[in-house]
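Hey, can you fold this one?
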Amino acid sequence: MLFMIFMAYLQTRSKVKEATHKVIIQYRDDPDLQNAIDGIQKGLKCCGGYSYHDWELNEHFNCSAKTVQACGVPFSCCLEVSMCCGHLLGFLSVGKGFVKSSRIVNFF
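Sure. Predicted structure:
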């Protein structure tokens, strides 16, 4: 019985992760979806489904993107909105910069 519960948990977690990644990928495609995700992230004080790294899945926030949002996250991830918040987190999260970025963005 315990095994069945554990398997159901793993399947549910997998489906939630898949759905979360799907909406992150589509974030800029649908303004209503974007507003919903922003509202959820602000309300739950979180960033992404599991961490801010989930935003690498989105073509606008991926570090290889040719946009100002490259290596960043949406402003709804920011603890306090500022000009630099949400931008270039891929560079901030290397070495000592991680401490600085942890004061800027909700990591969980």
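The chain has one domain: 2-102. Let me know if you want another pass with a different chain boundary.
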